[in-house]
């Protein structure tokens, strides 16, 4: 018995064995992969701290969707979130700028942040908070 020619994603090896390539091969930078923190992320956080008063930092742990992030909340409730290289980097960032760092899993999110977001929503403002650009 002669083998038929190979087709796209399908291989026939006799009457008893057929393999079909239903799943694509893994590619780099495909959707769903975690993007690491960049210097632009840290620059954004530093600028937020420098231009707002009463800023507090909240550490958000790594998830299956997002790397470790820091959420900065100003005294008026305005907030921004960006990726950081890890817990140690977040601690160093907060210490260098003399701002408190809280673990969001222990403390939770501050009420003023939720109120600020609700005020923006009621005013019809959309888009990411903070200094513009994509949020995490």
Question: Notable features of this structure?
Answer:
4 helices; name from scop; alpha+beta; two-stranded antiparallel sheet; 136 residues; globular; four-stranded mixed beta sheet; 29% helix
What topology does this entry show?
Layout: E1 10-12, E2 18-20, H1 39-51, E3 56-60, E4 69-73, E5 79-83, H2 87-96, E6 101-103, H3 104-107, H4 111-122
Parallel strand pairs: 3-6
Antiparallel strand pairs: 1-2, 3-4, 4-5
Could you please describe the fold and organization of this structure?
By secondary structure, the chain is of the alpha+beta class. The chain has a domain at 39-122: name from scop (3-Layer(aba) Sandwich). The protein is 29% helix and 18% strand. The chain contains four helices and six strands, in the order ββαβββαβαα. It has a four-stranded mixed beta sheet. A hairpin with a 5-residue loop joins strand 4 (69-73) and strand 5. 21% of the residues are buried. Mean pLDDT is 80; it is low at 131-136.
Percent helix range = 25-40%
What oligomerization state is this entry in?
Answer: single chain
Placed side by side, the strands forming the largest sheet appear as 5-4-3-6
Structural class determined from secondary elements: alpha+beta
Q: What's the rounded overall pLDDT mean? A: 80
Summarize the structure.
The chain is an alpha+beta fold. The chain has helices spanning 39-51, 87-96, 104-107, 111-122, and strands spanning 10-12, 18-20, 56-60, 69-73, 79-83, 101-103.
């Amino acid at each position: 018995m002669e083998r038929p020619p190979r087709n796209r994603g399908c291989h026939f090896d006799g009457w008893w064995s057929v393999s079909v390539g239903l799943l694509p091969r893994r590619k780099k930078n495909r959707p769903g992969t975690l993007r690491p923190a960049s210097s632009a992320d840290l620059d954004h956080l530093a600028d937020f701290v420098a231009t707002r008063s009463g800023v507090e930092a909240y550490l958000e742990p790594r998830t299956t969707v997002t790397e470790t992030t820091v959420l900065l909340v100003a005294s008026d409730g305005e907030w921004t979130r960006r990726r950081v290289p890890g817990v140690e980097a977040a601690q160093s960032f907060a210490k260098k700028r003399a701002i408190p760092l809280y673990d969001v899993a222990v403390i939770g999110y501050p009420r003023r942040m939720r109120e600020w977001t609700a005020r923006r929503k009621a005013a019809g403002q959309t888009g990411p908070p903070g200094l513009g650009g994509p949020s995490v």
